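The data are set out underneath:

___
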Amino acid sequence: MAKHEIATFGGGCFWCVEAIFQEVKGIDKVVSGYSGGSAPGKPTYREICSGLTGHAEVIQVTYDPEVISFEEILIIFMTTHDPTTLNRQGADVGTQYRSVIYYHDDHQKETAETVIEQLQSYFEDPIITELSPLEIFYEAEEYHQNYYRSNQSQGYCSFVITPKLQKLRKLYKDKLK
């Protein structure tokens, strides 16, 4: 059995990022959650939405590095959200929606730095994606897990997530399940 690895990152609403990575080959598990804050205890969605806890909405993926590399995951991540906007993705505004990569070790940190540097020329504005060590990952409430799959006809899903999935399917056909 292959050794699986974990990656944690956020690019706006975790429902969007979760939906994207659930379609990628080599990703075995996607969990929506929170990371990067300073408030004590496990935060709730309501607390996160206040913007006062410092946490970001993130996903944590478990992946098979023999099928997809951390670098490939980051390239998909960086090109399916806007890594050049501070604390914002579309209409979602606040520190909880920041673009962030939480690295688990030095190798992930170095790979993330390299990917950001390589992709910068594809963006008009500077990439402002935060790069920080993962300290704690809190799993989000159950109703946030598999959100798009369970709520595709909901307005936010139709108007925000579906176009992101269409972009993923166009750019990365060979990387999809």
